[in-house]
Amino acid sequence: MKKHILLITSFLAATFSLAAQDVSENISTIKSKYAPDSRTTIYNIKAAETSGPVVLYGETTEQAAKEALVASVKASGKEVQDYITLLPDEKKLEGKIYGVVHVSVADLRYSGSYSAEQATQLLMGMPLQVLKKDGWSQVRTPEGYIAWIPASSFTPMTKEEFNAYISSKKVMFTPDYGWIYSEAKSTSQRVCDVVAGNVMKYISAKGKWIKVALADGREGYIEKEKVTDFASWAKNTRPTQESVLKTAYRFIGVPYQWAGTSAKMLDCSGFAKTTYLLNGLVLARDASQQCHTGQNIEITDIATQYDRLQPGDLIFWGRKATPTSRERVTHVGIYVGDGLFIHESGRVKFDSFNKNHPRYSQYYVNIFVRATRIIGTEDQNKGVTSVEKNPLYNIQK
User: Fold this and answer.
1) What is the pLDDT of residues 155-170, one digit of tens each?
2) Residue 360, Cβ density class (10 Å: 0-12 exposed, 13-18 middle, ≥19 buried)
3) Handedness of CA 160, 166, 168, 174 (dihedral sign)
4) Is the pTM of this model over 0.90?
5) Domains of the chain by start residue, with CATH
């Protein structure tokens, strides 16, 4: 009798284990289809073994992934108990599922700690979607990147508050660096620093000064000649070959910082991203994401085919795909012309594919992977959006 019970118990355990394995395979399959890039999606879902229904729990930003997973488990004939949290978690966030950066440059990290690796930076006035809060807040940026930001760097908002901010008249700071002052004179107390691309609410004008407000309520004055109307800028600014190079040259000599995306410090993809942002476009965050946007330029040998490139094109380096390994993109720069390019490598500087140029680099010829054209692709569904049409810069329905 004991032997019979042991056999039944073993059979049931094996059945439950097999069922759990099947569900785990479903979870992995759905992830690869709906949430393949953890930099832009969250998909942390598990299944619990029970003698009854399959219990699904965890969290995801992808409603389609959640629905597909539940449907796939039910289709296998199993009952499902769905405890998956769909982010943003509006109830726990008390409706404050949006936010706006209120410091000149906000550092975001891969987890909610100052000791965690830096992921990216955001500029003052940039909108966010807040996904969840645990001391720090996990947020999604306008380009879709997901990272953690401290409470001291942004102001959380309800949809109504956020839409009021989006609808308000705003100005954008255009020089590289500057200050907001407590009074309409540069000898008064400073309120905060500002960098190129920072956006503030417009309150009023006073001679050569404009009174502005930050998302956290601080107010101050900034010189009128150093700002431009944000709505007009977003509507009318699009990159040209000349404007992209002019902006890129502004950053020559700016030192390298991992995850930097501001005039203060930059990494390679941050340099490309910020150059295009100041020309009205929102690019993907990392080089390995940027290389899959825009229009691909067919080049097999960069040393002899760089004439296929146009000023403003993005150039990518790393390791080409082989029969046994995938392509790996690790670096990006902006093409200037006649083989010359500008990139962030220790500092923003020039190098060249042209053997006759004093900045010729055999190294960058050897590790060239691909190139893409960004200018003119923002309305072609190629992974590039204008600030004007980017979802987070617009009213939330």
Assistant:
1) 999 999 999 999 999 9
2) middle
3) positive
4) yes
5) 2-86 (3.30.300), 98-166 (2.30.30.40), 168-229 (2.30.30.40), 241-386 (3.90.1720.10)
